[in-house]
Amino acid sequence: MDIGINNENRQEIAQGLSKLLADTYTLYLKTHYFHWNVTGPMFNTLHLMFETQYTELALAVDLVAERIRSLGVYAPGTYAHFSKLSSIEETIEVPKANDMIRDLVAGHEAVCRTARSVFPAAEKASDEATADLLTQRLQLHEKTAWMLRSLLE
C-alpha cells in the first residue's frame, strides 16, 4: 500500500481512530437507549432529539470505520473491542431525563477529547483526510454538547 503515509503512521492513526470509533458507537448505543426509555414532561422533545442524534452517530461510525479501512487496517467491530477501547462507560439503569442529558453531554465531550487526541498522529503523517474527518466530528460533537447543556440551564 502506497498512499503517501508509511505503515507505522497508518497504524498509529488507525489506533486512535479505533478509539474514536469505539467512543462513537458507545455513545450511539447510549443515545438510542435513552431515546427508547426517556419519560417526563420533556418526553417528545427529548425523544425526537435523541433520535436525530443517534441517527447521526450511526452514520458517523461508518465514516470512521471506513477511514480506518482506507488506511489499510481492520476496524474493530465487536462489543468486546469497543468496551476495551471506549472512554465512555455504559449506563445500565434508566436515568431521569435530566440525568440522561448530563450523561450525553459527558459522552459528547469524551468523543471530542478522543478526536483531539488523534490530531498529532494525523498531522505528523500529513494525513489531511483524517484531519478533515476529525474536524467534522469535533464540530458536530461540540455543537451537540452545547445544545444538550442548554437544556439544563
Automatic annotation (TrEMBL):
MF terms in GO: ferric iron binding; oxidoreductase activity, acting on metal ions
Gene3D superfamilies: 1.20.1260.10
Pfam families per the UniProt record, alphabetical: Ferritin
Domain of life from the UniProt record: Bacteria
Residue span, Ferritin/DPS domain: 16-153
Protein family per UniProt: Belongs to the Dps family.
Protein name listed in UniProt: DNA starvation/stationary phase protection protein
